[in-house]
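Hi V.,

You were right to ask for the full record rather than a summary. Here it is.
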Amino acid sequence: MNKKRPINKVFDKRNVANIRRTIFSRPGKDIPAGIVVFLVALPLCLGIALACGAPLISGLISGIIGGIVVGCISQSDVSVSGPAASLSAVVLVAIQQLGSFEVFLLALLIGGVLQLLLGILKAGLIADYMPTSIIKGLLAAIGLILIISQIPYALGIKQDGLYLDYAPNYFMELPEMLLSLLGSLSPGAIILSVISLLLLIFWEKTFLSKIKNLPSFLVVVILGVIVNQLFKFFIPSFYLEGIHLVNIPKIESLSSFLTFPDFTAIANIQVWTYGLTIALIASIASLLAIEAADNLDPHKRRSPPNRELVAQGIGNILAGLIGGIPITSVIVRSSVNIQAGAETKFSTITHGILLLLSVLFLSSIINLIPLASLAVLLLVVGYKLASISIFRSMYLKGWDQFIPFVVTTIGILLTDVLLGVLIGTASSLFFLLRGNFYNPFYMESTKSQKGKTTRLELSNEVSFLNKPAIKRTLWNLPKHSEIIIDATFTTYVEPDVVEILHDFQDTFARENNINVKITGLKEKYNPKSQVPLVNSQPKFIKDPSTPKEILEYLVDGNQRYVDGNLVSRRLRNKELMDFIKGAPLAAILNCIDMREPLNMLLNTGIGDLIPLRAAGNLVGEHLIHSLEIACRKQGARLILLMGNSGNSFIKEALENYLQGNDSYLKPLLEPALSSGTFSQERLKNEDLDDLVNEITLWNLEESKTRILRQNPYISDQVSQGKLGLCSAFFDRRTGKVEFSSLVNLATKEVL
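Predicted structure:
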């Protein structure tokens, strides 16, 4: 017989196979993606070096190290490392304060060593605590920065410098940029940008999209070179040259390529200060970047943060030794890498190799690429990171998500990446603390047989931040009230909160005649000393399995109900489905007159009981068969027949019988009346309510007899002790359920 494999298992295995790829498993996607990243990274490396006040070649050195060295060591599949714009201001000030680029390299070397130590000490766990709203705010800010910073290049504005990455003074210089815009526009750059943008927007509708492994980003760059060369020959006034093209410095010798640190400044305290600053900022920036890259990764793979710190530390050590600038995992290049279809880290290694080759051999060819083409690529990437739909989706998640998201975005735009993230994190912490302040517990009022009871269920963790809310709630309780404080599902309670509960119970509650019950709370939350203040939990540490254990479990559960110590079960539909996956404990058959919830009366878990109903507690052939299915198919190990006091059906039937009236409810009485147990004298002289309860009990015994006589499977299982059969009677006045013993067919007695 052929068995079909479950679809979900096939799907899972396929996904695992796709996600866990080796570095050379997808060169058809990784190499084109690496080329695209290289084309984007090349001007970024030069521009950041210029912004740092460092030699332009230092940016390319860091790009090469970030691609090849960090790419090989890191276990991130899609992030790309290189010179960091977030550190450009620090580097600029450090070079000025330290006096030379060589002394700065020593500080960078020290920073790399400190980063390496942070990775070894497993300090990367900070990335796991970064809220999603902050990550998305960071991505949105980077997207807006890309759009703002690339517009001048897309329009061909004549300006000195290659600031293609983030700088917070864009807003301050905006008026000046607008004034210079009118006289600095380049028609050739505008035409080239429009063509490139249209190509990217309508790429899927062109025949080129059907060519395998041909990324749209690469086509845009090639098209830019071709169109610009056509301008040169046919429309010279539109031709882009000079500052509108990529410009790689020519390498004439190794000495002009490498710069070494000045170790004579090792005792300079400023060197160590800047080294520590670089280590901290670079580490945080890298952790944020890999978290953001993992968020964008279509496969949602997770990059080990400690391994990333080790990789970045080694990269910065090498950069300090041979003349680079600080390296981090960079969001812009990582985003481009993912958008270009990269699958493994071979793409970032490819981009590093291409940077090295471009420096050594391809400078004349690379210098033909218009910056307008690269600007359009970054405009598209920026829009995807900061689209209107992202702002709308964050707004729909609520203010506690939207405000930190917006604050992070605006903070980064107005300051820098690190400070903006810190501001956004502070706003996120505000909502976290606010949520803890207002939600340390759940309160509900329940009505039991003893009256109205207020139930206060503590949250999973209760800290000192929750003290004001808890104290305010308890001290505002009215006199002569009753409260149950439930810490059953609480894993940790701050000692200060435990002390407040003691003060309330021992002093305030006594003086105001408040009845207090505390359940599940420990004196000290220490694994070696867990002394409960009140032990009102179920007797069973493990789940009950035998019929006898199940019966004892139900007896204990009803006692908790009578005492008012109900276990709160505030569950949503998904959690309900999780609960009912296991086998039920018992099948309970009660009268349709009884509408009280069984789970509450017996204080059982969700899905523990299978409820069945029979009028007057008399079973027929169909219900007996249903009981067999409940035990045989669903795994119930106890059959409980439950009657209730004041059965309105039996009472109405008995009243009509005594008055000589015919009734459709008469069949509920006939078996008991024909048994001879209830004589006419008893029926006339005894209290009606007592007779109703006695007939209910008689019907329960009659149903047990019918079940054992008519169903061989249940009878056999009961005789072997594998299945339990008993009855119970619910007293509506007290809430108490009286249980019979288990039927024992082997001895013709009950256990």
